[in-house]
């Protein structure tokens, strides 16, 4: 009955309804509700979260128990051959080189040396980092099912313990460490304005990033040149002068509290009036 509408009394609709192109038959109690249609569409949507297939791990098998382990002493020697770091009885995967063991134990094991809180096994290190990342994934509903979360944790553990991948240093320094900033990025780009407040804020920001084990890069082109005057009289110091102060902070703050120094990059646009001094400053300093 194309173009016709039959109501409960059997009467036909007016020509106006037909002119609008009505194309349905109405039976009392047979019309679907709008709420039912919307609800049905919602149920048809795919569940949220990622699915994590297993490529390297096997369900029910801990990747840390699938490799052979051995006890070693990690030693870092100075230029004169004397040990500047040593930690004995460390649990290391048997397939790892002694160099890998020395670096991981000396740089990434957390806790004060010769104390009970000090990490003594790569199992603890991997468990701390991977466990915290897994917890974040669960808390944020990243995984479609609990099994996907387990697969993610196992796959990531396998990749690390078998040296198929490695995180950057800030991840090992900070992630999963109580009361430590969960700072994971290795590099930060900062900005600065042509005010003393902003310049000093940059010094503090960089120092705190160095403390967390990260490096920084800053473009100082907004700072007026040493050829320009100040509002209160006198001549501006210029970006190269402030660079000396920033460089001093970078030199005294240990990156991540470890023995390495901070990594720092400074940029100055080629059209800045002090660009010649900037180009020569490192050579002049050395």
Automatic annotation (TrEMBL):
Pfam families xref list: Ribonuc_red_2_N, Ribonuc_red_lgC
Matching InterPro entries: RdRp_reductase_class-2, RNR_2_N, RNR_lg_C
Ranges for domain Ribonucleotide reductase large subunit C-terminal: 185-283
Residue span(s) of domain Ribonucleotide reductase class II vitamin B12-dependent N-terminal: 71-163
Entry cofactors: adenosylcob(III)alamin
Keywords of this entry: Cobalamin, Cobalt, Oxidoreductase
MF GO annotations: cobalamin binding; cobalt ion binding; ribonucleoside-diphosphate reductase activity, thioredoxin disulfide as acceptor
Keyword Coiled coil: no
Protein's recorded name: Uncharacterized protein
């Amino acid at each position: 009955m194309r173009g016709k509408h039959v109501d409960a009394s059997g009467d036909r609709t007016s020509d106006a309804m037909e002119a609008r192109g009505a194309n349905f038959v109405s039976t009392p109690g047979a019309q679907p509700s709008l709420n039912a249609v919307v609800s049905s569409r919602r149920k048809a949507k795919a569940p949220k979260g990622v699915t994590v297939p297993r490529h390297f791990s096997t369900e029910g098998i801990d990747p840390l128990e699938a490799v052979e382990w051995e006890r070693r002493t990690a030693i870092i020697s100075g230029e004169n051959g004397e040990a500047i770091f040593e930690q004995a009885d460390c649990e290391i995967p048997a397939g790892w080189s002694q160099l890998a063991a020395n670096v991981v134990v000396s740089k990434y094991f957390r806790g004060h040396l010769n104390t009970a809180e000090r990490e003594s096994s790569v199992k603890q290190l991997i468990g701390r980092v991977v466990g915290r990342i897994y917890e974040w994934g669960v808390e944020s509903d990243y995984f479609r099912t609990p099994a996907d979360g387990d697969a993610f944790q196992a796959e990531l553990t396998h990749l690390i313990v078998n040296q198929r991948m490695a995180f950057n240093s800030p991840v090992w320094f900070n992630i999963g460490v109580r009361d430590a900033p969960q700072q994971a990025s290795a590099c930060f780009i900062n900005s600065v304005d042509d005010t003393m407040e902003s310049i000093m804020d940059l010094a503090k920001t960089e120092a705190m990033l160095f403390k967390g084990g990260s490096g920084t890069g800053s473009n100082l082109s907004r700072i007026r040149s040493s050829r320009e005057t100040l509002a209160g009289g006198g001549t501006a110091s210029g970006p190269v002068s402030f660079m000396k102060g920033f460089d001093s902070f970078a030199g005294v703050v240990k990156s991540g509290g470890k023995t390495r120094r901070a990594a720092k990059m400074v940029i100055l646009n080629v059209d800045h009036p002090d660009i010649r001094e900037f180009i020569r400053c490192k050579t002049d300093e050395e």
